[in-house]
Amino acid sequence: MPKKYTIKTKITPPRFTPMGKSGIVDFSEDCARCQTCAKDACIFNVYTNRNFDSTQLADSIDYLCKNCFRCVQSCKKGLISKSINPEYLRMGDHYWTPDIISCNWYQSETGKIPVSGAGYRGKFAGKGFDDMWTDMSEIVRPTRDGIHGREYISTTIDLGKKPPLLKFDEKGALISETLPLIEIPLPMIFNVSPFGEVSEKVVIAMAKAAQVLTTLMFIPEENLTPSLTPYLNCLVPQIAAKGERLPGEIIKGCRMVELLYTSEWEKTCLSIKEINPQVLISLKIPFNYHATELTAALALQGVEIIHLYADLQGNSIDDAHPRFIKDLTRDIHLRLVDESLRDKVTLLVSGGIAMAEHVAKAIICGADGVILDLPLLIALECRLCKKCLRGLPCPVKIGNINIGWATQRIMNLMAAWRSQLLEVLGAMGLREVRRLRGEMGRAMLFQDLEQEIFAPLFGQRIQE
Prior knowledge:
29% of the residues lie in helices and 14% in strands.
């Protein structure tokens, strides 16, 4: 059995008072001065630890409150009430919702799986990943003990193509060509955010976290500075496709590089392999109408890794009728399976991966691993206000972070996400994440269930 992989977590409080979903309003007028005040009975001590951040005009209780409503119900005079914070509702957008941002903040601070004591009052189906449910039928079986350490559940994935068969000589020695392969203990790879106050400190913190977690980090060539030299083994430089300025020393020290797909990709790949024959090459192509055909063609030509990227909301790029990353990944995976090409290429997907559950769902749809960008920025207290895109200063000054603090926040987030992935694998009776790839039998899609149940009743196909 391989050594158990663990991520060391540590409570890492935010630098600024986070935006709370609701605010507590408590009137002092008409207070009866009860001997046992409802505020003193708070089991989370939010009133005791309450403070006011004058720089952001924020009350800490809005974030600390766990929404148990005990104080609201216990106050004999009914002087305590809760109301929705309008500033909270303005965070993010329709996809990166305030609840997603707040959830990732909590995980980055504690390294724990978020648990709500107020119950779930939302919808059970929606757009994107929300119309996909995972099968938890094995939740009571012993395999689930892997979450608590009694059984081993692996979250390790392989990057690179695998040979279809192995050949041995008469003495049992391997004579097949050995292909370069990278094994990482998490199906999650980092990427620099497309916007935000991404300073050198932020990039170093991400690289340091990737090194400690022994995963990889994609980084644009222009962000490669001498300060990143200690982390070169975990970096994946994104090189200009024409290869006019191939950084030879960097390529020699890396295990993997990435090219943006162009018509000259083959020429550039040969140049890179001449510098470092063992380096893996990832080809980055957009999720669009042609992605399925292009991915199959590239896999047939021997491309080792294909990085399929969607927009920040997980939709296809430049399509008149955008499709979601879940459906696109599923189509491409099935096409590669039909042509017996699936194990000859590694599929990595990015765009719209906002929560831990999205990692498992993307892998079920056929991805080998996912690439994360905005969640890492959210771990550093980003509110996705996008003021930086309008030339306004960052309200939480992300560019001036402490590197050690930021590294731990990212590690906490990955620990919480991995714990949730282990929950999914254990509840499915699986002992390794590799077996989850393409297991659509482990998932239920709302649209498919709707067709199966209601179409026979109405005698026709239900319109989407």
